[in-house]
């Protein structure tokens, strides 16, 4: 199923590309990061690969992202986590207030998620947008259908509606140093004890025009499975426009 969803989102991205004229710009980013720890009797590592693509034209932008995390500790797999998403923004580049739509698919060993699909829409607000600082706040409603391993260690299938609040920021500290992050808070509208937290931040140092050294921190928590993970990675990010 992961492969099918991945191909579906890639297809939508390519379809969107065909609908725009030559005035659009394309942005591709790929990062590979990890952390390794060896002792006399134990070995652990976590590797993260991420691919993102954005296509923009004046009033509409379409972006897709794909992230895979794999990790082992003492010979046991602790991370086998995959997330893919497709996002559309309307009027984001021309208005303070804009519209967004999002589809997201997740499967995660570390969070006890077998399958999770989210889809929804809402409004976004460009709070600050200049050459040095960009702050965006979005809010909307998302429908979720999931299969998880719950706190009783039973396989559970459920559906719920969530409010999805996001704060996204980017800060060009100097010409070569930047900080960026994205933070989600997604409580269920049906159960206040059911919530999701997704938070990521990265410090980037520009090595070349297309290459950056990246130190990233990611935190996820799923209350329904009572699982969380915190991942610190360092590595390289390649990005460019065409």
Q: Identify the quaternary structure here.
A: single chain
- What is the element string, with H for helices and E for strands? HEEEEEEEEEEEE
Q: How much is the average pLDDT?
A: 90
Count of individual beta strands = 12
CATH architecture: Beta Barrel
Q: Spans of 5+ residues with little confidence (pLDDT < 50)? A: 1-21
First-residue to last-residue Cα separation: 31 Å
Structural class: mainly beta
Strand order of the largest sheet: 1-2-3-4-5-6-7-8-9-10-11-12
Calculate Rg over CA atoms: 18 Å
At the fold tier of CATH, the topology name is: Porin
| Helical content class | under 10%
CATH class: Mainly Beta
**CATH homologous superfamily identity:** monomeric porin ompg
Verbal overview:
The protein has 242 residues and is mainly beta. It has a single domain (2-21, 38-241), classed as Porin. It has one helix and twelve strands, in the order αββββββββββββ. It has a twelve-stranded antiparallel barrel with strand order 1-2-3-4-5-6-7-8-9-10-11-12. The longest helix has 17 residues, at 2-18. The radius of gyration is 18 Å and the shape is globular. The two termini are 31 Å apart.
Which descriptors apply to this entry?
242 residues, mainly beta, Porin, twelve-stranded antiparallel β-barrel, 7% helix, 72% strand, globular, disordered N terminus
List the helices and strands and how they pair.
Layout (H helix, E strand, L loop, with lengths): L1 H17 L6 E14 L4 E15 L2 E14 L2 E15 L6 E12 L4 E17 L3 E17 L5 E18 L4 E11 L7 E14 L2 E12 L4 E15 L1
Antiparallel strand pairs: 1-2, 1-12, 2-3, 3-4, 4-5, 5-6, 6-7, 7-8, 8-9, 9-10, 10-11, 11-12
């Amino acid at each position: 199923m992961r492969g099918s969803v991945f191909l579906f989102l890639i297809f939508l991205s390519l379809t969107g590309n065909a609908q725009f004229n030559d005035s659009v710009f394309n942005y591709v980013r790929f990062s590979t990061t990890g952390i390794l720890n060896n002792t006399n009797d134990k070995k652990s590592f976590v590797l993260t690969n991420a691919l993102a693509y954005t296509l923009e034209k004046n009033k509409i932008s379409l972006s897709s992202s794909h992230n895979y995390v794999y990790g082992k500790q003492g010979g046991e797999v602790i991370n086998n986590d995959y997330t893919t998403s497709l996002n559309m923004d309307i009027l984001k580049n021309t208005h303070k207030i804009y519209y967004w739509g999002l589809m997201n698919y997740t499967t995660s060993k570390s969070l006890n998620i077998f399958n999770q699909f989210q889809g929804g829409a809402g409004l976004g607000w460009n709070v600050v947008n200049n050459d040095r600082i960009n702050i965006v706040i979005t809010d909307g409603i998302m429908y979720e259908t999931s299969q998880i391993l719950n706190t009783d260690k039973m396989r559970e299938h459920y559906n719920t509606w969530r409010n999805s609040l996001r704060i996204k920021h980017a800060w060009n500290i100097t010409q070569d140093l930047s900080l960026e992050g994205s933070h989600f808070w997604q409580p269920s509208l049906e159960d206040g004890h059911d919530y999701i937290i997704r938070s990521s931040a990265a410090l980037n140092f520009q090595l070349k025009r297309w290459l950056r050294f990246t130190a990233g921190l990611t935190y996820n928590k799923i209350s329904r499975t009572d699982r969380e993970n915190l991942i610190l990675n360092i590595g390289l990010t390649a990005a460019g426009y065409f």
